[in-house]
## 1
Amino acid sequence: MISAMIYKDFSIIKRTAATYLLMMLFYFGMTIGGVFQGTGMMNMFASVLAIAVPLSGFAFDEQARWEKYAITLPLGRKGVVQAKYMMALLLTVCAGLLIVLMNLIIFAFFPSRIASLPAALLTVVGMMAGCTLVQSLLIPPCMKYGVQKARVILIIVFATTAAVMVPLSMSVFFPMWARSIISGLSQAMLGQIAAVVLAAFVAAVLLMFVSYRLSLRIYEKKEF
């Protein structure tokens, strides 16, 4: 039954997801063509795919008043919450794997950039951690208020995330990428960055579990 709910969500978001996938493929083609040196734009659209597309599923459910019917199904409220979180995680994993595949193809076309492969893979893991973190913050208010009523909270979360991540990217990740392109990262530096990124990923997964438990409590008490 959970798989059926996930399939339902996928069916209603596939057009939205296809738009972001086409944009990723467009920038992938531009990178292969030598217009772009890095995969920053592809990473950005992958992040939007993992974060915004699940939210569009909430919006479609609201419009169709799906929840009133869904809670009468055998899996009930718990199944609805589980399906939403599994969809978010699946999109994050799929976006991450797609970016890894695109990176490998790019390095096959440009062997001289192979020194930046470890940095690129760490960036993908960092992207997945960031997406999981934002999803953990966004899903509970959507469960409680719906997308329309929670839009102020969503704007605050997005604005706060951007305010933190943009300066961090410019001061840490962009120089890291630039150094890796020019001369590669030292083993010590690479190990330090890997430790930070993996710690952030573990923290994001733990926060996702806390978010799931919170959403479950919210949804069990929600009146329709």
## 2
Amino acid sequence: MLRHALSLFILSWAVCAQAQSLVVAPELWDRPRSARAVLDEAAVKQAVTAYLAQRGSRIVIHHGAAQESMLQAEELRSWLFVLAVESRHIGLLGDLKPGEALRMAVLR
């Protein structure tokens, strides 16, 4: 458990130190989603483009502790996989305050 917490802390620090935070528009969740709709979201497009341009990079999805936020993060993770991001290169980090929009970061 301590090892997991330490890993999350290091990952969180690395995200803050090395990556731009991309805010996923809350409106994405107000309508039915398709691969095109998700990729048209500016934050997703930027993250996927950066990921594909930098071999070995990783995408971290920041979410809140509430169930809705966690479900959105899991759904976004699934869409990223559909959009050619290897699942092992997608991480979830529950470090946002309640009510904050999902954020994404690309680690290089």
